[in-house]
Amino acid sequence: MATVIGGYFTSHVPGIGHAIARGLKQDAYWKPFFDGLLPVQRWLADKKPDVAVVFYNDHGLNFFLDKMPTFAVGAAATYRNADEGWGLPVQNSFDGHQALSWHLIESLVNDEFDITTCQEMLVDHAVVVPFQLAYPDASHWPVKIVPIAINTVQHPLPSAKRCLALGRAVGKALASWGGDEKIVVMGTGGLSHQLEGGRAGFINKDYDQFCLDHLGPDPDALTKHSALDIVELAGSQGIEIVNWIAARGALGSGALVQKTRNYHIPISNTAAATLVLEPAA
Ligand code: DHB
Ligand code: FE
């Protein structure tokens, strides 16, 4: 039987990729943030997952405003990275786990989620930066992936409640998967940030702490806010928290233990956070 080893949640700010490329991890500005990833690296080295189911949002690389699926599930053999405009060095491609992708897709459609299925899919900084943080020395990515993209870009946006339900449906599908892989669930983006307009640089520490406090023990608490409430509370890109909420849903209803938590203000315009939740023994 496959095992879900837990969830790894992190911000995906492109500036992190630039800092890695420029060798700045030990600089005073960056060190407290990168040090927050050391427990994640140790956890993954210990648990050795084979597959990652990654909830994230595309930022105009694979999808643009002309065609924007609310929920899209990758079913590709390979996911190539490319530069969507931040000038980041292109990272290695990811191997897909196609059989698991199709199992998730079948199960989600059966559960009445009208997803978009992507047999070709490019992945942007929202996928590669969290992997660069998790596996800093990897010459190839040690896990296969199933990427699940949630629209956080073009309104109307899916509600936190719907994203939690999507994640729970993914968790149900993982529980019925016949393989014997070790699976890590990832949620990327957030926490509070806004990149444009009069509120550029907006950060809401209270809301971020509320999310970090409740995500594990009481994820439904995060669904009391509508998508527009979250934009108000967390900034227009802080809505990326829905990727975390979906990933949390995939961890199921059993008790979770918090293995590590880090909150660092700011990285670029973002309140950067990292969290690992593991099923209680
Ligand atoms: C920033 C944060 C993001 O989540 C993103 O996708 C792009 C930029 C930032 O704070 O610079
Ligand atoms: Fe983002």
Descriptors:
8-stranded mixed beta sheet; 281 residues; binds 3,4-dihydroxybenzoic acid; Protocatechuate 4,5-dioxygenase, Chain B; globular
Written account of the structure:
With 281 residues, the chain is of the alpha/beta class. It is 32% helix and 23% strand. An 8-stranded mixed sheet has the order 6-3-8-2-9-1-11-10, with helices on both faces. The mean pLDDT is 98. It has helices at 14-21, 31-35, 38-47, 98-110, 125-134, 160-175, 205-214, 227-234, 241-249, and strands spanning 3-10, 51-56, 71-74, 78-81, 94-95, 116-118, 122-123, 144-150, 182-188, 256-267, 270-279. Helix 1 packs across helix 5 (125-134), helix 4 packs across helix 6 (160-175) and helix 6 (160-175) runs parallel beside helix 9. The chain has one domain: Protocatechuate 4,5-dioxygenase, Chain B (3-Layer(aba) Sandwich). Bound molecules: 3,4-dihydroxybenzoic acid and fe (iii) ion (FE). The site of 3,4-dihydroxybenzoic acid has 13 residues, from helix 1.
Show the helix and strand layout.
Elements: E1 3-10, H1 14-21, H2 31-35, H3 38-47, E2 51-56, E3 71-74, E4 78-81, E5 94-95, H4 98-110, E6 116-118, E7 122-123, H5 125-134, E8 144-150, H6 160-175, E9 182-188, H7 205-214, H8 227-234, H9 241-249, E10 256-267, E11 270-279
Question: What is the structure about, briefly put?
Answer:
The chain has 281 residues and is of the alpha/beta class. The chain has one domain: LigB-like (Protocatechuate 4,5-dioxygenase, Chain B), CATH 3.40.830.10.
